[in-house]
């Protein structure tokens, strides 16, 4: 909700689209880069203290931004946007770190991670429409404040849950590189940036295709369809968890994810395009689920939350890179349509080169 609310706030005040886009990009990038550091702090000091503190900080920054008038005070808006992004609570990484204590059985963990990952799509299905509704019914300031307070409510639910309150960090020696000192994890995270690249490029493609084909609804329908495919796959995997070596699951899901983007290059009609992106969304859930399980297996003891945060961060930074590069290729629709498959191909190539290193998982 927050990035869209920031963009609407800038536009409502007569600011340029360039300023709004820059603030949104800064928010996303700062959020991605802040996650590993916050994950490390959680691993050292626990979820309650660290997550509770940064929730207060990010909420304060977003509420202040809502009343800063970014178009007239771009410098102050930039500082507040970066502050809100950097202090975004590591709830996703923290939640995934709790599953082993909640569900000791590995098959149940896999099912829980699948529905956890798939349900993330609901954020992108419900968040933007809710933001638009609040901005239209009231104003963008209200939409941004609602986003901030919704985050407080969600964090409160997690932090007051018994598994989160009972979770304690492991007391182990720290390392400057943290989980990145593990070569296999470093390769995995680098590969996942290609997955994020594909997702970021799709967002720009949907906007460009909507304008070129004179179908404004396509810009929102395509990301929603991707999320719908992810949610559906999460529900299916809950009842039929995948089996076999994690390395094989990871490679298989990545190969299917990459291949499922190829029909996009044929420039499908609007309805066909919406149907087409259901498939990459469906393969995204098993891919990310396998990546989280692999990360759990390879992460050094006491660094699981930070490792999960790095996974999330690399997907986010890849998404930012995909959005940026796609924005430069809008004059070439065929090249733009090929970018998601290109991101998947890069990820698959990296995973294939590391296959022998992952066989033991």
Describe the structure in brief.
This protein is mainly α.
Strand and helix map with partners:
Elements: H1 2-12, H2 17-45, H3 47-66, H4 74-86, H5 91-102, H6 106-119, H7 121-137, H8 140-159, H9 162-166, H10 183-212, H11 218-239, H12 246-259, H13 270-276, H14 278-298, H15 304-328, H16 333-353, H17 355-358
Helix pairs in contact: 1-2, 1-7, 1-8, 2-3, 2-4, 2-15, 3-4, 3-8, 5-15, 6-11, 6-14, 7-8, 7-11, 10-11, 10-14, 10-15, 10-16, 11-13, 11-14, 12-14, 12-16, 14-15
CATH superfamily caption of the largest domain = MFS general substrate transporter like domains
CATH third-tier fold name of the largest domain: Growth Hormone, Chain: A
CATH class of the largest domain: Mainly Alpha
Distance between the termini: 37 Å
**Global geometry:** globular
**Second rung of CATH, namely the architecture of the largest domain:** Up-down Bundle
Q: What is the string of SSEs from the N terminus onward?
A: HHHHHHHHHHHHHHHHH
Helix content: over 70%
Mean pLDDT score, rounded? 87
Radius of gyration: 20 Å
> How many separate helices?
17
Class derived from helix and strand content: mainly alpha
Low-confidence stretches: none
Q: Determine the strand fraction and express it as a percent band.
A: under 5%
| Largest sheet features | none
The number of strands is 0
Question: Could you walk me through the main structural features you see in this protein, from its secondary elements to its overall organization?
Answer:
There is one protein chain. By secondary structure, the protein is mainly α. The protein folds into two domains: 1-102 and 123-169, no CATH class; 172-361, Up-down Bundle (Growth Hormone, Chain: A), CATH 1.20.1250. It contains 17 helices and no strands. Helix 3 (47-66) runs antiparallel to helix 4. The two termini are 37 Å apart. The mean pLDDT is 87.
């Amino acid at each position: 909700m927050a990035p869209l609310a920031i963009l609407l706030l800038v536009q409502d005040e007569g600011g340029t689209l360039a300023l709004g886009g820059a603030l949104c990009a800064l928010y996303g990038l700062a959020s991605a880069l802040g996650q590993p550091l916050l994950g490390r702090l959680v691993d050292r000091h626990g979820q309650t203290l660290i997550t509770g503190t940064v929730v207060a900080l990010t909420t304060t920054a977003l509420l202040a931004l809502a009343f800063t008038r970014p178009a007239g005070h771009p410098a102050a808006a930039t500082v507040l946007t970066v502050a809100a992004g950097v202090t975004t609570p590591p709830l996703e990484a923290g939640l995934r770190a709790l599953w082993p204590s909640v569900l000791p059985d590995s098959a149940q963990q896999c099912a829980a991670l699948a529905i956890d990952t798939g349900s993330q799509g609901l954020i992108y299905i419900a968040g933007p429409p809710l933001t638009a509704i609040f901005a239209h019914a009231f104003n963008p300031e209200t939409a941004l404040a609602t986003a901030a307070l919704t985050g407080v409510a969600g964090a409160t639910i997690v932090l007051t849950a018994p598994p989160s309150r009972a979770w304690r960090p492991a007391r182990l020696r720290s390392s400057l590189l943290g989980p990145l000192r593990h070569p296999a994890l470093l390769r995995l995270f680098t590969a996942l940036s290609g997955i994020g690249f594909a997702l970021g490029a799709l967002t720009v493609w949907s906007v460009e295709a909507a304008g070129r084909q004179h179908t404004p609804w396509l810009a929102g329908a395509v990301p929603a369809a991707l999320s719908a495919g992810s949610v559906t796959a999460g529900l299916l995997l809950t009842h039929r968890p995948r089996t076999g070596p994690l390395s094989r699951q990871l490679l298989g899901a990545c190969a299917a994810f990459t291949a499922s983007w190829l029909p996009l290059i044929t420039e499908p009609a609007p309805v066909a395009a919406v149907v087409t992106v259901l498939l990459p969304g469906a393969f995204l859930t098993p891919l990310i689920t396998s990546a989280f399980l692999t990360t759990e297996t390879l992460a050094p003891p006491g660094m699981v939350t930070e490792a999960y945060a790095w996974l999330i961060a690399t997907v986010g930074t890849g998404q930012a890179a995909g959005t940026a590069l796609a924005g430069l290729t809008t004059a070439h629709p065929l090249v733009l349509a090929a970018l998601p498959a290109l991101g998947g191909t890069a990820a698959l190539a990296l995973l294939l080169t590391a296959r022998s290193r992952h066989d033991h998982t």
